[in-house]
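User: I'm putting together notes for a lab meeting next week and I want to include a structural view of one of the chains we've been expressing. I don't have a solved structure, so I'd like a prediction I can at least talk through. The sequence is below, exactly as it appears in our construct file.
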Amino acid sequence: MEKERVDLNTETEEAEEEEEDPSSSTLLDLTNLTTNRLSSLDPRISHLSLLKKLSLRQNLITDDAVSPLSSWTTLSALEELVLRDNQLKKIPDVRIFKQLLVFDVSFNEITSLHGLCNASNTLKELYVSKNEVAKIEEIEHFDQLNILELGSNKLRVMENLQNLTNLQELWLGRNRIKSVNLCGLKCIKKLSLQSNRLTSMTGFEGCIALEELYLSHNGISKMEGLSSLVNLRVLDVSSNKLTSIDDIQNLMHLEDLWLNDNQIESLEGIVESVAGSKEKLTTIYLEKNPCAKSLNYTAVLREIFPNIEQIDSDVFS
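Assistant: Thanks for the context. Below is the predicted structure for the 317-residue chain, given as structure tokens.
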């Protein structure tokens, strides 16, 4: 059965007469709601009882403008609500959406996660990046959550994560976090703490499912706590204060290793340091380290890593 669509920008009576009953519609013309400088919600949206996704990104919607959503019970089957890049200062009331899977309020002016306690525990993906949030709270009931994005906020502490037992991706880059606390979680596969205030790598030891770890632009001086991360494929510790390559010799699946912009003096000992992934590694970045100025730098690395495809910005066929 072909999905009908409702064009909310249609103004003429003739067009409205041609349109079928909007309550039977399952697909909204989302292009008419994105980047349109909308400052209010068209009440006709409330008639789309079978609507599954509503995207209102890149508009001028305020807290008052979005408030009617909380009373439009005909939309209770909504599964995805995107309010990214608007003018919200608080989490909207989404308690009527009992089947919500994706909720995105990134790029707003939200100062607190207060109100998330009312969101459905069916949520799979939550995006609150680029706001002004200072504390991780009211997320304990999201035991089905797979992705949590809280990058570019004002967070100082990793906390209240312990119930997110199905979490696979945690994005906390560009905050003010000083230490790692995964609250006992062991299922995370992708973790970003780029551009924080870390000085140590300790805290990842129990996260054995981890496949991608991003720690660039911190103040880390030693590679440690990595030997148990046996499933790691991508490790980014660029732009730190490292002087040597350590604790990754047993990582058999490592494919991408980013070490650029550190203080690694020599390539001596690198064979032992990456023994486990020597055959697997395809990409390595070491530029802007003292060792990158050594004689035959690229040739030495190509000899160490027989399957290398990229060294810094040089790509090999």
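A couple of points you could mention at the meeting. Helices lie at 13-18, 63-66, 270-273, 297-304. The two ends are 47 Å apart (CA to CA).

User: Perfect, that's what I needed.
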